[in-house]
Design goal:
Blueprint: E1 2-6, H1 11-21, E2 39-47, E3 50-59, E4 62-71, H2 78-98, H3 112-123, H4 126-135, H5 141-158, E5 165-172, H6 190-193, H7 196-216, E6 220-228, H8 236-249, E7 257-261, H9 270-278, E8 283-285, H10 293-298, H11 305-318, E9 322-329, H12 336-349, E10 353-358, H13 380-395, E11 399-404, E12 415-419, H14 426-433, E13 437-441, E14 446-450, E15 456-460, H15 465-470, H16 476-487
Parallel strand pairs: 1-2, 5-6, 5-13, 6-7, 7-8, 8-9, 9-10
Antiparallel strand pairs: 2-3, 3-4, 10-12, 11-12, 14-15
Helix pairs in contact: 1-2, 3-4, 3-5, 4-5, 5-14, 7-8, 8-9, 9-11, 12-13
């Protein structure tokens, strides 16, 4: 997509707005332009009474120009006023050109709850927050109600945790097979899987060093999250060895939450579940994505619906405090009746958490080359599915506690975590809030620390397992990362 800008507005913000109406588009200057290439012309002008924006969008034989004026408002900085003006103009032009009305209006970014929480701190009532979200940000009433509710639930939980608390994330970036919508191709190859023993030894060294730093800083770990990949790809001895090692570094009894992702039901065994519970794990994710067998096959999941039910019941019998299940709305080939059937079956199980994702595809995934339209803008099936998930969970006494959004999501929709009372996913809320230190170990791990003045800084480990293993324990790169983490304030 070709974008031209006159005036003071962030280019990436305009790109994100355009992706609402033209999902999957690229903005590289090296992309070949054709008559079919969508175009956006943006002009921003600061006036005495506010900011005016004029936007022209063009796609094929459709073209429309829209103008918007954002009046001065004590709630908004000049920067935010410009975003609101440009967003409203893109919104109006985009609706005309694509015949699509985005439910989230012009609110872009992964964490919309932060906007709602900030507005609540300033305005003090849910009604006032929803008025700004529907007025300035053009959300539908339904989405404004949802994100305001989620933001207040998140805020209540997050504010229980003081600056002397922190969390630990442990990365197990391996899977038994690759899903069609995932880009982690090499993580499931035999060569990469053969690295697991060496990977675990390196990981244990990093966990030990990280816990030492946390103790030196006088912090207390309140949640541990073992994610992936699929951590239960590890065999029983490997998983037990890792969990026992973590238990020697951190007292699981002192944690508010200890999560293990067991995302793929075909990797779960009674022995692994028993080991996890005995080592203090309190929360486990077992994720069918769908209970439609044909869709499971088409997306490359090597398990059946029966495998999920088996794993779920085994987990329930093992004694976990909290079980989470993930489902995905808008999967290619799925439809509303199929999704509703999956959702009904999941709700009947009464897992403490249900996370409903909306389908989105990663850039290097196989499904991009399959001919399937993965960038559906007007997916009635996905909209119906997401709406139904929110209705049926509410009727079943679940509440939304966690929400995030991604670019190029089908229907410009959202991912929402629902919980029974007393089972909100603590780590999920803390990572969304970005007000809490999260130390991370392993390949692809990102440590996120909050400075004394409230700024967030990220520290990156090498992305791939082989890169991670190639970094010597006493190497300068590794020492530099840990030294920066140790002395960061």
């Amino acid at each position: 997509m070709k974008i031209t800008i006159q005036g003071d507005i962030n280019v990436s913000y305009v790109q994100n707005l355009c992706l609402i109406f033209f999902p999957g588009q690229k903005f590289s200057e090296h992309e070949k332009e054709s008559e079919e290439t969508p175009k956006a012309d943006v002009r921003v002008e600061r006036e005495e009474e506010g900011v005016r924006a004029t936007v022209t969008l063009e796609a094929g034989d459709r073209k429309h120009t829209a103008t918007s004026f954002a009046p001065n408002n004590p709630l908004h900085s000049d920067h935010r006023l410009a975003q609101i003006a440009v967003g409203a103009a893109v919104y109006e032009a985009g609706k005309k050109v694509t015949e699509f009305t985005p439910p989230w209006g012009i609110l872009v970014g992964i964490r919309p709850g932060k906007v709602a929480a900030k507005l609540y701190d300033e305005l003090g009532t849910k009604t006032a927050v929803k008025k700004v979200l529907t007025g300035d940000y053009l959300l539908t009433n339904k989405k404004a109600q949802l994100i305001t509710t989620v933001a207040l639930n998140e805020q209540k939980l997050v504010r229980r945790y003081k600056p002397d608390t922190c969390s630990l994330y442990v990365s197990i970036p391996f899977c038994p097979t690759r899903c069609a919508y995932c880009s982690f191709v090499s993580y499931a190859t035999p060569r990469l899987l053969s690295m697991i023993p060496d990977y675990l030894e390196r990981l244990k060294a990093d966990i030990a060093e990280t816990v030492r730093i946390i103790k030196e800083k006088g912090q207390r770990i309140v949640t541990v999250y073992i994610g992936g990949g699929t951590p239960t790809t590890l065999d029983e001895a490997q998983l037990g060895g890792l969990l026992e090692f973590i238990g020697r570094q951190i007292d699981p009894a002192g944690l508010d939450e200890y999560t293990l992702e067991g995302g793929r039901p075909d990797t779960i065994t009674p022995k692994k579940l028993s080991v996890a519970v005995n080592c203090g794990v309190s929360r486990i994710s077992i994720n069918p994505q769908t209970l439609n067998e044909d869709i499971l096959k088409s997306i490359g999941r090597k398990h059946t619906a029966d495998d999920f039910f088996r794993a779920y019941y085994q987990a329930r019998q093992s004694g976990f405090k909290t079980i989470n299940t993930d489902v995905i709305a808008g999967l290619p080939g799925d439809n509303f009746p199929s999704f509703a059937k999956t959702m009904d079956q999941i709700v009947q199980l009464r897992p403490e958490n249900i996370t409903v994702h909306t389908f989105f595809v990663k850039k290097a995934s196989d499904i991009l080359h399959s001919g399937v339209n993965v960038y559906s803008r007007n997916s009635r099936e996905a909209v119906q599915s997401v709406d139904y998930s929110q209705i049926v969970t509410t009727q079943s006494k679940y509440h939304p506690y966690y929400l995030y959004r991604q670019k190029n999501t089908v229907g410009n929709l959202e991912n929402v975590g629902f919980s029974l009372d007393g089972h909100d996913g603590i780590y999920n809320c803390l990572i969304m809030a970005e007000e809490h230190d999260i130390y991370a170990c392993g390949a692809g791990a990102v440590t996120k620390l909050v400075s004394k003045d409230g700024n967030l800084r990220r520290f990156y480990m090498p992305k791939y397992p082989y890169e991670y293993l190639d970094m010597p324990l006493d190497g300068e790169d590794r020492r530099a990362i840990f030294d920066e983490i140790r002395y960061f304030e």
